[in-house]
């Protein structure tokens, strides 16, 4: 156990690869994403709908991950993060999740998805981005101190910083750029916490949609070369408790909020979508998530249309 170092955390996130993510974390990522899809596609009032799964229309070169530092995210990525985050936040609370974690989960999924789509990334990159977001949020949340004011600031940061970490990973940012992205996100979250005069709800200050958008825009700023002021980065260091960075961070990500098993999540997905969608298509999506690291760019997004 070591004290939280923002630099070490940024380096850890920057170095994440699919192979370095423990299998147990990969499995939680799959089923958290499937659970999110059940919310996006299962609400009868939702404007999203299932469409045939296809990978046509992209060349082999385009099907490779193309995230690279220096490539700015499109404006659409912020819009996707905002809309997906809002839909996930408005959906029913998963049986396996607390309200605070559900919002953090929604912000990270929305930011990772939008950034990966914007950069033309594949399923493996999406899993890496989600892993980065969950690890960053878990490490930051672990450092929340007893002081109410500071707890409110750090707690509010966890969702936005997790979203920024996910977006930064999706773009392949260096540790330095990742640190700047997290600093910008921490500043946004802390300012909202102060403006609303709330105390220690983990992400209640801004909500999943705002945290997701702030995270994506923070990564966008880092891509353009903007440097986060030192006082914003210091917000990431203010926890009094010892916080693990490195291999132990993965255990934190697992312990903070256990995800459903594969069978539980698949059953929930079938139950929520069976009334209005064919079982063959539903099973196809479940299989796609089970092999997420093998999916080509745009395949998951092709499952839903606005």
From TrEMBL:
Organism: Advenella kashmirensis W13003
MmgE/PrpD N-terminal domain location: 8-234
GO MF assignments: lyase activity
Protein name: MmgE/PrpD N-terminal domain-containing protein
InterPro entries, sorted: MmgE/PrpD_sf, MmgE/PrpD_sf_1, MmgE_PrpD_N
């Amino acid at each position: 156990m070591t004290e939280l170092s923002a630099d070490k955390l940024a380096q850890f996130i920057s170095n994440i690869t699919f192979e370095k993510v423990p299998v147990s974390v990969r499995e939680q990522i799959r089923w958290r994403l499937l659970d999110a899809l059940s919310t996006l596609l299962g609400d009868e009032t939702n404007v999203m709908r299932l469409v045939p799964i296809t990978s046509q229309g992209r060349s082999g070169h385009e099907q490779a991950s193309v995230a690279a530092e220096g490539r700015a995210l499109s404006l659409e990525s912020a819009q996707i993060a905002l809309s997906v985050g809002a839909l996930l936040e408005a959906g029913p609370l998963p049986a396996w999740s607390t309200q605070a974690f559900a919002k953090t989960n929604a912000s990270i999924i929305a930011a990772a998805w939008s950034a990966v789509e914007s950069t033309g990334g594949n399923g493996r990159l999406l899993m890496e981005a989600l892993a980065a977001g969950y690890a960053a949020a878990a490490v930051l949340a672990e450092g929340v101190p007893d002081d109410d004011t500071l707890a409110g600031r750090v707690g509010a940061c966890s969702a936005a910083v997790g979203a920024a970490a996910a977006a930064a990973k999706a773009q392949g940012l260096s540790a330095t750029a990742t640190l700047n992205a997290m600093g910008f996100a921490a500043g946004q979250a802390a300012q909202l916490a102060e403006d609303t005069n709330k105390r220690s709800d983990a992400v209640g200050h801004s909500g999943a949609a705002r945290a997701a958008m702030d995270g994506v825009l923070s990564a966008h700023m880092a891509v353009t070369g903007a440097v986060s002021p030192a006082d914003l980065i210091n917000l990431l260091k203010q926890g009094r408790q010892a916080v693990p960075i490195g291999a132990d961070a993965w255990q934190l990500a697992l312990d903070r909020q256990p995800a459903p098993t594969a069978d539980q999540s698949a059953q929930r997905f079938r139950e929520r979508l069976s009334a209005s969608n064919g079982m063959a298509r539903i099973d196809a999506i479940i299989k796609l998530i089970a092999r997420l690291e093998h999916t080509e760019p745009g395949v998951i997004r092709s499952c839903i249309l606005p």
